[in-house]
Write a structure and sequence with these properties.
Distance between the termini: 72 Å
Strand content: 5-15%
CATH class of the largest domain: Mainly Alpha
Structural class: alpha/beta
Oligomer: single chain
Strand order of the largest sheet: 2-1-3-4-5
Shape: elongated
CATH superfamily of the largest domain: Tetratricopeptide repeat domain
CATH architecture of the largest domain: Alpha Horseshoe
Number of strands: 7
Helix content: 55-70%
Number of helices: 25
Length: 478
């Protein structure tokens, strides 16, 4: 008979559920003393008060799951904190008023699937009905053999919490290859796992049949041969770094454009002519167009792509049409105080800023770094947030600081961090990326410099500063 511990502080609810579950032929014990964490005694299933625990729910659940034997866990609650924390704790959340039938079904599931709460060796063996064994090579082959034929319920339940997590191999996977415990089709499948695909895609893409793939991914995760992370685990390779940056750009862009203007969508000022608008549209498309992103597994952020691009298309169509743009300006004059904008500035201000920027760039070229910093600071005061103005000012400020005796690396790192944050969520700006690459190189990060410079050259392959820096960094072009 299933034993249930009601770790609930509410006397009325605890006594009521204890009686109802007993009448349903479950062994139910109410113990308010364990409402904040495990105490003495054991149970097959524990009911927790998610409203009471709030943000502490994941920690308390983890404490229960460290017990042996492992109990199943169900949470009760209706608060927003309960709804937010239950997925993080990986527990089923029911309302305190759920029907007895629903509650009993959740208790049965929690008991049957208690070994799906986490993926680790100590849970893998009992989940397969196997006795405990040390995590060593001698046990790997029989454990994997059992995992291939186990019922799918526990692997499916364990993986459902990680559907949008990225799957990355570890050194243990190399050890499993060396021990030759994987079949040829399994080797083909795991050799394609490089940290850029989510669980959902890994399971579905083949060559293994999805249920076989799900069992294998679950088993390998439990054997520490794969890790599952909501963000890219380690951006040590080019594909992982690209993916990590795209995710950061998508998330930042959604935040930047909330309540903004069409000028912010395309990152242009009201001075922009049709050619400027079309050029901006092309540059935005290089980073955010659905066709450019289709080859990347962006997990849950994929839902941001099409709505963001629809806004780009709408902004372009309105701003290139003289009549529509005029009507939009009429609307904008009324709504501007309620909108968030960097780009919808007064045209005269945009002209003043552009002139100061041009003077600052000329001064930089002449080696007059103090005058350059003064002019670029003027441009940024007039037009704060403009990527090229801000990045150029950072480079000039770095040079002035170094000339004054500040440590080169420390100065470069400070300025680099500010520009990297500024460029998140924006279309690629070649001159800003060149300034960022210069700061990276100055800070001793040649690989990072090449990374940013590559993007700049893809847009403007003949930019003199970019070409010169690429040559210095030994980059091959072509």
């Amino acid at each position: 008979m299933t034993s249930v511990l009601l770790a609930l502080a509410d006397v009325g609810l605890g006594v009521q559920l204890e009686e109802q579950l007993a009448n349903a032929e479950l062994t139910a014990t109410w113990d308010a003393a364990q409402a904040h964490g495990p105490g003495a005694g054991q149970a097959d299933v524990v009911l927790l008060d998610a409203d009471l625990l709030g943000a502490r729910l994941p920690g308390v659940v983890a404490a229960w799951r460290d017990r042996a034997p492992l109990p199943g866990i169900v949470a009760l609650g209706t608060s927003r904190a309960a709804r937010d924390q239950a997925p993080r704790a990986r527990v089923t959340l029911l309302t305190p008023g759920a029907s007895l039938t629903t509650l009993i079904a959740a208790i049965r599931d929690a008991e049957a699937l208690r070994f799906s709460a986490a993926m680790r060796w100590s849970l893998l063996r009992p989940a397969l009905g196997m006795p405990p064994e040390p995590d060593a090579a001698a046990a790997w082959a029989p454990t994997l053999a059992a995992a291939r034929t186990t019922t799918i319920e526990i692997p499916r339940a364990a993986l459902r919490w990680h559907v949008h997590d990225y799957v990355t191999p570890t050194e243990r996977l190399d050890q499993l290859r060396d021990e030759r415990v994987l079949t040829v089709p399994e080797l083909e499948a795991v050799n394609r796992i490089d940290g850029t695909s989510t669980v959902q895609r890994v399971v579905r893409r083949g060559p293994l049949e999805p249920l076989h793939a799900a069992r294998l991914v679950w088993a390998l995760g439990s054997m520490s041969a794969l890790v599952f992370t909501p963000e890219v685990h380690d951006a040590a390779t080019g594909p992982r770094r690209t993916l990590a940056e795209l995710r950061a750009h998508l998330r930042a862009r959604a935040a930047r454009l909330e309540g903004s203007t069409y000028y912010d969508v395309l990152e242009i000022s009201p001075l922009a002519e049709v050619d400027d608008i079309e050029a901006a549209y092309r540059h935005v498309s290089l980073r955010f167009a659905p066709g450019e992103l289709v080859g990347y597994d962006l997990g849950e952020l994929a839902a941001l792509i099409q709505p963001s691009w629809d806004l780009v298309e709408k902004a372009r169509n309105v701003l290139v049409d003289h009549a529509q743009r005029g009507r939009y300006h009429d609307w904008l004059r009324q709504k501007l105080p309620t909108l968030r904008t960097i780009w919808a500035v007064d045209p005269s201000v945009a002209r003043t800023a552009a002139a100061a920027f041009a003077r600052g760039q000329h001064a930089l070229g002449q080696g007059d770094i103090h005058r350059a910093m003064s002019e670029l600071a003027t441009a940024c005061r007039q037009f704060p947030g403009h990527p090229e103005y801000e990045a150029s000012l950072s480079w000039a400020r770095y040079r002035v600081q170094v000339a004054a005796g500040r440590d080169r690396v420390a100065a470069a790192l400070t300025e680099r961090a500010a520009i990297e944050d500024l460029l998140l969520g924006r279309r690629p700006w070649p001159h800003a990326l060149v300034a960022l690459a210069l700061l990276c190189a100055a800070g001793g990060e040649a690989d990072a410099a090449r990374w940013h410079l590559q993007t700049a050259l893809a847009i403007d392959p003949e930019a003199p500063a970019a070409v010169q820096l690429a040559r210095r960094l030994g980059m091959r072009r072509g």
